[in-house]
């Protein structure tokens, strides 16, 4: 047995089923050993997307996604994917090949100090210098990635370590780390304080972030909200914590959020933030969310509490455990009046759009798509105007909504959708992107074909980098700079080149029929929707 | 802006110091000094960091440092409950005629002369930062050729605050 065999055994012990990656000499021992395993390998077409695909997979499975790339440019290419996962607290294990350990630091061919380069985007990183360390390092890495506040862990393995003989292999059953012990259970004193505030409150609200999904606490959150009739809003990463049409759910907050959700949060007298960072997109003026209200902040990462705003009741722990404890509490409270008022806002504060009938109206289109999607379908939104429309108009039923919320990485949707599909069995997975973000990941159409991953893709084509164009429209009075996407490929021909089924939608007249065709079979299809180039999200 | 001294116990791994200093530079926190050395148990390093900021920042620094996977324990060394010491080596230009004056000042501060050359002296001084600053102020009449300060190392007084490994 050599080091590379030991690495594969570790992955098997962790129940890894798929590795996304791109080989090069420095990771070749790994890719040779993996041939003897049942672990499936997926050759992605650029390394950044290996991390995105692993991220999509991790978000559906609830455990780390795995990618493996070579040294030097392979490793540096994966950094954006790692940073994207870090910003959204997605658990990843990134394995990078490295040059011979004796040559480290001498700037040889394809050497990059990857552990140094990713330092600010990983939860932790390892450079393995002793082959016998492999089992311990992998055990720790999977534990660190998927516990506490989740995140990516990078493991750099020089080629000579991958080839070195292993004396004996024993995978540790337990992790024993002297220095790393995340808090899981919430403090009961603080939980009782929350309940006392809830009894006093007239207008309580829960603002749920991605942390609720990461700790798999949707049901517990819903139980708590329903038991005490507490309305819920979410951040972008929290979309899907409640079904969009749940009577107690009032939409996404923030500068791109629903006015009703923002008003609900502003008027509340008790705000329970859970698994959310209080970051600028969701809360542009952190001072205001403590004005005239009691703020409870629940997070598994103590450093998030008080980072942007000081809460009245900090509560550190895992959302699932905390909601389980909260659900057991009793309180005398009635918020019917408040819920009625919010229902009124929801009715009266609908966003009014004036769509151009010559084109596809993204808002109406996305709502229609949601209604036709499978109940448990997975919707993966890219970044740009398309993301804002997706957040605003996609209706989550029992499925999931995935997007790059923290980093806002264009090109996320197609590789993430592939990863999600591989994790989700036969579930319907749809990637929705713009013509800019599509072109950042269109090389992955080949990966879809090669590995037969039936993801459906929608391109909202407006021939502009729409989000930036919209910004230039407002900020620079239509002084457009470097946002024109002329020269983009004919997507029908491109689909033919990749042997993909292609559909085009010109306006809403045929939307019903075309969407039925788009969704009818479990197969890859590319649907191009022509969107008014001058359409705006605001 | 307040000054605060933190004591860290961290795994004695090769990247630990760069992880800590990287955290400070990335998030824009001040480091006035940082000292590190192995503890009685060679698996751990004890690190003393002097930092400054307003209360919110100092609170964040403590939490962010505690979050690092390699860090076992973080605590504040409050001046009333702790001792701080810094070592300074000071090379002063002093020809034969000036030597006695320098030595007199050094004696008052219980500093040691550890090297004598025809044109210069090296003085070794240990103390808290105020003492070293005061000593340097007294040397103003002389030319300081080179100065090396270690930054402070600190420990809490008594056995109440000991973190057992």
Sum up the structure in keywords.
heterodimer, A: alpha/beta, 6-stranded parallel β-sheet, 22 helices, 17% strand, globular, B: 165 residues, alpha+beta, 5-stranded antiparallel β-sheet, 4 helices
Structural class of chain A: alpha/beta
Strand order of the largest sheet of chain A: 2-1-3-4-6-5
Structural class computed from helices and strand pairing of chain B = alpha+beta
Overall mean pLDDT of chain A: 96
List the helices and strands and how they pair.
The complex is a heterodimer of chains A (538) and B (165).
Chain A: H1 3-13, E1 18-22, H2 28-33, E2 40-43, H3 47-61, E3 65-69, H4 73-77, H5 79-87, E4 92-98, H6 114-117, E5 124-127, H7 134-146, E6 152-158, H8 159-163, H9 188-200, E7 204-208, H10 210-214, H11 218-228, E8 232-234, E9 249-252, H12 259-267, E10 270-274, E11 294-299, E12 313-316, H13 319-327, H14 336-348, H15 362-372, E13 378-381, H16 385-393, E14 400-402, H17 413-423, E15 429-434, H18 435-441, H19 444-450, E16 456-461, H20 466-475, H21 491-497, E17 501-505, H22 511-519, E18 525-530
Chain B: E1 2-11, H1 16-26, E2 33-38, E3 44-53, H2 55-67, E4 71-76, E5 82-93, H3 96-108, E6 112-116, E7 120-127, H4 129-138, E8 143-149, E9 153-156
Antiparallel strand pairs in B: 1-3, 1-4, 2-3, 5-7, 5-8, 5-9, 6-7
């Amino acid at each position: 047995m050599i080091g590379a065999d030991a690495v594969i055994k570790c992955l098997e012990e962790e129940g890894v089923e798929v590795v996304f990656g791109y080989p090069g000499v420095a990771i070749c021992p790994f890719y040779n050993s993996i041939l003897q395993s049942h672990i499936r390998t997926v050759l992605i077409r650029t390394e950044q997307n290996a991390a995105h695909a692993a991220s999509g997979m991790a978000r559906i499975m609830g455990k780390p996604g795995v990618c493996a790339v070579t040294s030097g440019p392979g490793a540096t290419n994966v950094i954006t994917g790692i940073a994207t996962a870090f910003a959204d607290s997605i658990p990843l294990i990134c394995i990078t090949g490295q040059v011979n350990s004796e040559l480290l630091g001498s700037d040889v061919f394809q050497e990059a100090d990857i552990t140094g380069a990713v330092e600010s985007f990983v939860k932790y990183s390892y450079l393995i210098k002793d082959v016998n360390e492999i089992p311990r390092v992998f055990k720790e890495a999977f534990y660190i990635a998927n516990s506490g506040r989740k995140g990516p862990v990078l493991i750099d393995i020089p080629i000579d370590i991958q080839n070195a003989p292993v004396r004996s292999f024993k995978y540790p059953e337990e992790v024993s780390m002297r220095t790393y012990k995340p808090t899981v259970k919430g403090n009961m004193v603080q939980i009782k304080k929350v309940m006392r505030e809830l009894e006093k409150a007239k207008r309580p609200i829960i603002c749920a972030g991605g942390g609720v999904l990461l700790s798999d606490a949707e049901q517990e959150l819903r139980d708590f909200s329903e038991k005490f009739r507490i309305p819920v809003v979410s951040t972008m990463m929290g979309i899907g914590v409640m079904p969009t049409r749940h009577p107690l759910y009032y939409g996404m907050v923030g500068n791109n959020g629903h006015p009703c959700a923002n008003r609900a949060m502003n008027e509340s007298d008790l705000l329970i933030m859970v698994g959310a960072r209080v970051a600028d997109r969701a809360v542009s003026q952190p001072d205001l969310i403590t004005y005239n209200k009691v703020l409870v902040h629940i997070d598994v990462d103590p450093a998030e509490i008080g980072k942007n705003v000081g809460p009245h009741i900090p509560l550190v722990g895992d959302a699932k455990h905390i909601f389980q404890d909260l659900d057991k509490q009793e309180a005398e409270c009635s918020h019917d009046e408040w819920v009625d008022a919010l229902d009124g806002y929801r009715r009266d504060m609908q966003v009014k759009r004036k769509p151009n009938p010559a084109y596809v109206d993204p808002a109406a289109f996305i709502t229609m798509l949601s209604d036709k999607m499978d109940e448990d379908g997975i919707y993966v939104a890219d970044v740009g105007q398309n993301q804002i429309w997706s957040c605003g108009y996609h209706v989550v039923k029992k499925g999931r909504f995935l997007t790059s919320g923290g980093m806002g990485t264009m090109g996320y949707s197609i590789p993430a959708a592939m990863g999600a599909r591989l994790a989700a069995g036969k579930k319907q997975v749809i990637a929705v992107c713009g013509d800019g973000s599509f072109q950042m990941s269109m090389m992955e159409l080949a990966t879809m074909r090669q590995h037969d991953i039936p993801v459906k893709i929608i391109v909202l084509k407006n021939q502009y980098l729409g989000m930036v164009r919209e910004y230039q429209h407002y900020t620079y009075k239509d002084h457009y700079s470097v946002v024109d996407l002329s020269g983009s490929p004919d997507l029908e021909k491109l689909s033919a080149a990749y042997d993909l089924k292609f559909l085009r939608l010109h306006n809403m007249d045929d939307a019903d029929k075309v969407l039925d065709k788009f969704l009818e079979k479990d197969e890859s299809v590319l649907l191009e929707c022509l969107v008014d180039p001058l359409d705006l999200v605001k | 802006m307040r000054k605060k001294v933190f004591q860290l116990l961290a795994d004695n791994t090769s990247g630990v110091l760069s992880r800590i200093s990287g955290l400070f530079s990335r998030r824009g926190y001040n480091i006035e000094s940082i000292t590190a050395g192995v503890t009685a148990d060679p698996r751990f390093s004890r690190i003393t960091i002097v930092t400054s900021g307003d209360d919110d920042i100092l609170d964040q620094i403590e939490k962010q440092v505690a979050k690092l996977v390699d860090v076992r324990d973080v605590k504040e060394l409050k001046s009333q409950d702790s001792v701080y010491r810094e070592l300074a080596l000071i090379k002063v230009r002093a020809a034969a005629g000036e030597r006695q004056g320098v030595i007199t000042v050094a004696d008052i501060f219980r500093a040691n002369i550890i090297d004598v050359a025809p044109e210069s002296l090296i003085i070794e001084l240990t103390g808290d930062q105020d003492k070293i600053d005061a000593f340097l102020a007294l040397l103003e009449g002389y030319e300081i050729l080179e100065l090396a300060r270690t930054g402070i190392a600190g420990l809490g007084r008594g056995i109440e605050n000991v973190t057992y490994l």
